[in-house]
Amino acid sequence: MTTESAPRLGYIGLGNMGAPMARRLVDWPAGLVVCDARASATEKFAAEGVAVAETPAEVATRASVISVTVRDDTQVRDVLTGPQGILSTAPAGTVVAVHSTIADSTAIELAADCARHGVDLVDAPVSGGAPGAKQGRLAVMVGGSEAAFEAVRSPFARWADLVVHAGPVGAGTRMKLARNLVHFVAFAAAAEAARLAEAAGLDIRRLGEVVRHSDAVTGGPGAILWRASTTRLADGDPWLPIMSHVRDLGEKDLALALDLGARLGTELPLARLGFEHLAEGLGLPTTDRSST
């Protein structure tokens, strides 16, 4: 992309996520302007010759594609619609990308506010955390129009190695919430597994080593998310033997874990829920096998 064809970029919010994401845009062909409420956050950028704006409103006068990475819905609203917000100065055609994880209803409401000014908003939350931001290996889930998605695709590729168009405004946030459901329920399951291992006299640090190693090989919970639908698998479906194998192994191992927990006096509520709902989640009928 040449200086002539590239939009000038703006980045608002230079915290643990925003700073490493913006840093990958420092050499953007058409230039970058950054903004943060803390002067200390912009000093390093200024030292590298990056333009610094005092307010979001000033960013909007100097950039046509603007990323926003702030804390929550309230801060996003202020950056966009406050007295010194983006919409107070942004010309028609500006594209604003919100990377903060906010409510999907907030994204839709703010997109309507933007549209009244001729501005396009995309909700574009990211997954991968601070390590992914530093490595340029984030996944970004974009909700917005096709035109807005095309406007952000190239700059996003500087700090993300997976850029997904999830659908219209709000879809990016919904996908992020579904993704994080996997993440944090898995954390709760890991904590439950640690309790079982500890009760069995095992070193839970070594258990963590094994979990991280095997998940890196198998893909972890995401390994089953290949189907286009959650409907019941029909006879002849090519996924039927694969998911049946997963169900049979999963129910066997969960039953054994529940039996071990019962003998050790350790409650395993997530394991029991997993046993009861695994087959249904895989698109299969439940079996008549019962846990011990």
TrEMBL record:
Residues 170-278 form the 3-hydroxyisobutyrate dehydrogenase-like NAD-binding domain. Residues 9-167 form the 6-phosphogluconate dehydrogenase NADP-binding domain. Keywords: NAD, Oxidoreductase. The keyword Oxidoreductase applies. Pfam families: NAD_binding_11, NAD_binding_2. It comes from the Bacteria. Belongs to the HIBADH-related family. This is 3-hydroxyisobutyrate dehydrogenase-like beta-hydroxyacid dehydrogenase.
